[in-house]
Design brief:
Elements lengths: L1 H11 L3 E6 L2 H14 L4 E6 L5 H14 L5 E4 L17 H16 L8 E4 L24 H22 L1
Parallel strand pairs: 1-2, 3-4
Helix pairs in contact: 3-4, 4-5
């Protein structure tokens, strides 16, 4: 969806695009389709599970070592688990993927990203939820995948001005 369209658009403009994927085989298939549509597209495939903060840090260190001048990061990863699920670090999965993982990744890439852009892809679904600062991990109440998704996207939007000031 949006990730593929973003990669295609950037590749079409001549950018070197570093595609971050959980499933390398699936990502390679997408990269092949984009290369077929955009001959000469420069795509690099990286594996990382954005929900796993250890993996995020590993990926960011590897990318920073290889790419000293990063122009932009587009945080587009998304999940909507059918039941409450936790990341390896014990965070609610939607919150880990939509907010915490991207923040940790951007923090780890601040050196190569100096002067670059950070894009957080949110959703209009966030308008359906208020900010639940008392329960960011969705530990109380009946879990709903759509509510969890909307809450994490609300957090993303509410944190954007704070993060923009920091970054």
């Amino acid at each position: 969806g949006l990730g593929v369209a973003t990669v295609e658009g950037l590749a079409g403009l001549g950018a070197v695009v570093h595609m971050l994927v959980r499933d390398e085989a699936k990502g390679a298939g997408v990269a092949d389709r984009i290369r077929a549509a955009h001959p000469g597209a420069e795509l690099r495939l990286w594996r990382c599970d954005v929900a796993d903060l250890d993996d995020v840090r590993r990926f960011a260190a590897a990318l920073a070592a290889e790419v000293p001048d990063l122009h932009a990061v587009v945080h587009n990863a998304g999940v909507m688990p059918p039941e409450r699920t936790e990341s390896p670090q014990g965070l609610e999965l939607s919150m880990a993927v939509h907010l915490v993982g991207p923040v940790v990744m951007t923090e780890a890439l601040r050196g190569p990203l100096a002067g670059g852009r950070v894009v957080l892809v949110s959703s209009g679904g966030m308008y359906a939820q208020s900010l639940h600062a008392d329960d960011p991990g969705y530990t109380t109440g009946d879990y709903s995948p759509t509510t969890s998704y909307a809450r994490s996207k609300r957090w993303q939007v509410e944190m954007a001005p704070v993060l923009a000031g920091r970054w």
